Amino acid sequence: MDSVRMWIILLILFRQWTSCAGADTHWTYTGSVGQTQWSEYFPHCGGTKQSPINVETSQAQHDPSLTPVRPLGYRQTGNQPFTLTNNGHTVEMSLPGWMGLGGLPWQFTAVQLHLHWGSSGGRGGGSEHTIDGHSSAAELHVVHFNSELYPNVSTAMKQKDGLAVLGVLIETSEDTNPGFENIISYLENIKHAGQKVPIPAFDVQSLLPLHLGRYFRYNGSLTTPPCYQSVLWTVFTERVTVSLAQLRKLETALFSSPVEESDSHLLQDNYRSPQPLNRRVVVASFPPDTTTVYTVGEICAMVIGAICGCIGLAVIIHFVIKTVRSTSSWDVLPSVRPTSLPRSKETEKEPKQDVVFKTTSNPEKEEAPPQPEP
Ligand SMILES: *[C@@H]1O[C@H](CO)[C@@H](O)[C@H](O)[C@H]1NC(C)=O
Ligand SMILES: *[C@@H]1O[C@H](CO)[C@@H](O)[C@H](O)[C@H]1NC(C)=O
Questions:
Q1: Which protein residue has the closest C-alpha to ligand 1 atom 5?
Q2: What digits encode the pLDDT tens for the residues 348-369?
Q3: Please, what are the domains in the chain?
Q4: Mean pLDDT (the chain, rounded)
Q5: Do 213 and 238 contact (CB within 8 A), yes or no?
Q6: Ramachandran angles phi, psi of 200, nearest 5°
Q7: Cα 154 to ligand 1 centre (Å)
Q8: Where would you tag: which of 52, 219, 237, 266 has the fewest CB atoms within 10 A of its CB?
Q9: Transmembrane segments in this chain: where (predicted)?
Q10: Quick check: helix, strand or coil at residue 299?
């Protein structure tokens, strides 16, 4: 009886522990439920197709069938405001259902967009995806679900072909980005986790790079728990820029803690480290040799450089040949000269060396005895 009771108690405790460890677990980027611990509480986070990744450009395979991404209805603002939310992990903006994505294997409908950033004005990184090991200052994610196959995002996010996310790498420049200002200027209104604010609708395409035809694509996951491996990723090669002041505001305006919590923590460094690629292939929409685009000036410099190089090489070769020729004639002379010197053994060898030099036209060096002249 006692052992049965003990088992029942253990079972109840186990159930409570597992329900705690589910969706309710409060995760963070560092600390006791930091990113290295996520997989203990959210098993998908320990999967083999996780995101983000470091994209090795030299390993990406060009797929000529990849057409430019087509944002659908991104420029239509409608007459309803967008909702900006501090969810404790990021700032998230809801997107209207008429927005979608074309140029993918299925029709995708937009759900929300959010950002990831660092804490040091971009110097210590902040983006999730890295390219050839290079971090950007921040990263924008525009999340869509497969509305051709699934009724809503909560169902789709658990299916392997459920989501499509656009990844836009963000760097800093001199200029204020007016598109991002539509979001950044309202962060003061949602300082604490759980707060929301309606903001005027704006052209969401203004947040994307100009050229939507150059990107990397791979199968990956949500970059936050529960890390479902349901995302077809598109990471654009063209970066967008915001001013340092805008980045600073993003890095310092929000708290990850709710308003009622006395000790507030800045919402910073909300980016996950690159995950193992494992057996996945990253495809590129563009061929590898066009990765570097040269300006007219650079091409001129390269042509002039090549010509100068050729002339230089010709001059060097000319001098080497000249030197070799004259050296061989100098070598012959001393070898001839010592014959006149009285030396016991060497003197006997010298004439042979002399023959070797002179017999470039006569292959049978030593075998050939001096032929009598006709
Ligand atoms: C999503 O769709 C599923 C299946 O139709 C349904 O059970 C669920 O309640 C829906 N969820 C939401 C949030 O609408
Ligand atoms: C993603 O996975 C699907 C199979 O689930 C495959 O058909 C597709 O080619 C993969 N896409 C990429 C970019 O690897």
A1: 151
A2: 444 444 444 444 444 444 444 4
A3: 31-299 (3.10.200.10)
A4: 84
A5: no
A6: -55, 135
A7: 7
A8: 266
A9: 301-321
A10: helix
